[in-house]
TrEMBL record:
This is Glycosyl hydrolases family 2, TIM barrel domain-containing protein. Residues 64-136 form the Beta-mannosidase-like galactose-binding domain. Gene3D superfamilies: Galactose-binding domain-like (2.60.120.260), Glycosidases (3.20.20.80), Immunoglobulins (2.60.40.10). Residues 239-279 form the Glycoside hydrolase family 2 immunoglobulin-like beta-sandwich domain. It holds the Pfam family Glyco_hydro_2_C. GO terms for biological process: carbohydrate metabolic process. PROSITE patterns: GLYCOSYL_HYDROL_F2_1. Transmembrane segments: none annotated.
Length: 586
């Protein structure tokens, strides 16, 4: 399943799923590799594996870190477009033995367009690397697992010489209303629509090309002048009035298809369908407003991680996670610490959940950020994340650089650049960053929203009330005055099944009591716009973290890695439920 809905009616698209050949590629540990001893001896024989999947779920490779090859064949003729939704974490792609290109970063899609394939069978080889190397600035031993494999779906499209690459829709709030149906009734939602095309071969002289866009009962059409080359170009930018649409809200997440059709000499030649929700997000004083109404976040930080699937969760497993989050009265997810699978975002759109999506970076100190590849690779993640996830109404905030060097001058430069890049790509959503630099953060003036990771009653022997009061004072004195404040992490660990009534640390009882106190105190603080619990489920961490992570798990999950609820589940459900009720009556 590529998405939760069909993205084409005209274009032929297939998922290159099913069984692929898989072979481990043995290699000498590279100089400076951080983890040679941990790698398993590599069996050379090839085996059949499903794609998407990750190799830590293949017997014998539970701890493999290194290179491997995935191969498959397909029948095709003409121009093809290959889209990899996510390969963990480096991919080198060859078609019929010819290099198409390389891509680094596990969590964002990439595309290769290949003109004029001869009719017949074609062979696709993907060499994947999940080693920790200096070349891969964002991956190093961390408090989550850097898995390996083709971990998200692969799509094969047959495309004409000019094809549609992307459609962006930016909803524009009614001029005279609050975007929520309230107002003087004269306002009409508008949508700013942009369509990007790709031309592989210049059309014959005299060919007429046009783009038609259909959205919410409206149709616009405009001529297109093709630009030759394997790159994308903006082919259409227009604003459409959309009278009578229902806004996208958490309670009623109305979604509308947007269909772009490419007409060649008046005949449909290619199409792309995406989905749109009419809603605006804006910061108003110290509140974040959705359609003019302040939101209160009852959220969970969530890693893409599962004992049976690694980071290649099938849609069924995503559904289960979202069911549990909603059952606990959660209304938001933070995609800590990287962009998420599109299908998960589709489901959030459908459920009316709010998403904080973040670029890939966790716990980078200045040395990590001075990796010569860091700036370019981080910028690429941001670009790919925003370009591909732009239309999701559920995404209400972009996050960057979780707990990185926001306390140094060089770090600040990096934060500045990344915020500037986001604002260049998308002005319709606020930006933030989760910090833990309680006494020396130098970047609080930069984002629209200030976000703190705090662990009262856990890493700190202080109450949440005290920590929030202290943080607020610091924030106000250091550039963050008047901005909304999110508690982007709060939580405590517990080992599933370890129970006693002695308030023993690591017991489910201790975690449940701690969460109850943390959440109650946080929501009692009027300056707090919302809270993301660290974290939804227990997750596997990289081997090097074994000293501080029993069972090699970050066990601050409210459910364990198999999604079995710990005692904290009911505590969270109760507090989130009360907050939701209070909110509903405001
Ligand atoms: C940090 C970090 C998380 C996780 C957490 C913890 O706040 O952002 O990724 O490591 O701490 O469990 O300590």
């Amino acid at each position: 399943m590529l998405r939760t809905f069909d993205t084409h009616r005209i274009r032929r698209t297939t998922e290159l799923g099913g069984l692929w050949d898989f072979t481990v590629l043995p290699e000498e540990p590279a100089e400076g590799a951080t983890e040679p001893a941990a790698s398993e001896p590599a069996p050379a024989a090839s085996r059949k594996v499903t794609v998407p999947s990750c190799w830590q779920t293949y017997p014998g490779l539970e701890n493999y870190r290194g290179r491997a090859r995935y191969s498959t064949t397909f029948e095709a003729e003409g121009n093809v477009r290959l889209e990899f939704k996510g390969v963990s974490h480096f991919a080198r792609v060859e078609l019929d033995g010819r290099l198409l290109g390389e891509h680094y970063n596990a969590y964002t899609p990439f595309v290769f367009a290949v003109p004029a394939l001869a009719a017949g069978e074609h062979r696709l080889d993907v060499t994947v690397d999940n080693a920790f190397r200096e070349d891969y600035a964002l991956n190093f031993p961390n408090d989550y697992m850097s898995y390996g494999g083709i971990s998200r779906p692969v799509a094969l499209d047959l495309v004409p010489d000019t094809s549609i690459e992307r459609v962006h829709v930016t909803p524009v709030t009614p001029a005279h209303g609050d975007g929520n149906g309230n107002g003087d009734g004269e306002g009409v939602w508008k949508a700013h629509v942009e369509v990007w095309c790709r031309t592989l071969r210049k059309p014959r002289a005299g060919t007429r090309m046009a783009l038609r866009v259909e959205l919410a009962g409206q149709t616009v059409e405009a001529d297109v002048t093709p630009c030759e080359g394997e790159y994308e170009y903006l082919a259409l930018a227009t604003t459409v009035e959309c009278p009578g649409v229902r806004p996208w809200t958490c309670e009623d997440p109305a979604l509308y298809p947007v269909t772009a059709t490419l007409l060649v000499n008046g005949r449909p030649a290619d199409d792309l369908i995406d989905r749109v929700g009419f809603r605006t997000v804006r910061v108003n004083g110290d509140r974040i407003e959705l359609n003019g109404k302040p939101i209160v976040i009852r959220g969970f930080c969530r890693h893409e991680d599962h004992p049976a699937f690694g980071n290649a969760l099938p849609p069924q497993a995503m559904q289960v996670d979202l069911d549990l989050i909603e059952d606990m009265h959660g209304n938001a997810v933070r995609t800590s610490h990287y962009p998420n699978d599109e299908r998960f975002l589709d489901m959030c759109d459908e459920r009316g959940l709010l998403v904080w999506e973040e670029n890939h970076a966790r716990g980078m100190d200045e040395e990590h950020m001075r990796n010569p590849h860091f700036q370019a690779q981080a910028a690429q993640v941001i670009r790919e994340m925003i370009e591909t996830h732009y239309n999701h109404p559920s995404i209400v905030i972009w996050g960057i650089l979780n707990e990185c060097a926001s306390n140094t001058a060089y770090g600040r430069e990096c934060y500045e650049r990344q915020y500037a890049l986001i604002r260049e790509l998308d002005v319709s959503r606020p930006v933030t960053s989760a910090t833990c630099h309680m006494r020396d953060d130098m970047c609080l003036d930069l984002p629209d929203v200030v976000s703190w990771n705090i662990y009262p009653y856990w890493y700190e022997a202080k109450s949440a009330t005290r920590m929030i009061t202290d943080q607020l004072a610091y924030t106000r004195e250091h550039g963050g005055a008047g901005k909304p404040l999110i508690i982007s992490e709060i939580g405590a660990g517990a080992i599933y099944g370890f129970r006693n009534r002695d308030e023993e640390i690591w017991t489910e009882e201790y975690q449940a009591n701690t969460l109850r106190k943390q959440l109650t105190e946080a929501f009692d603080e009027p300056a707090v716009t919302g809270v993301f619990i660290w974290q939804f489920c227990d997750v596997r961490v990289d081997r090097e973290w074994w000293r501080v992570r029993a069972k090699r798990r970050n066990d601050k999950g409210i459910v364990d890695e198999f999604r079995r609820p710990k005692m904290a589940y009911d505590a969270v459900k109760e507090v989130f439920g009360e907050v939701a009720e209070r909110q509903a009556t405001v």
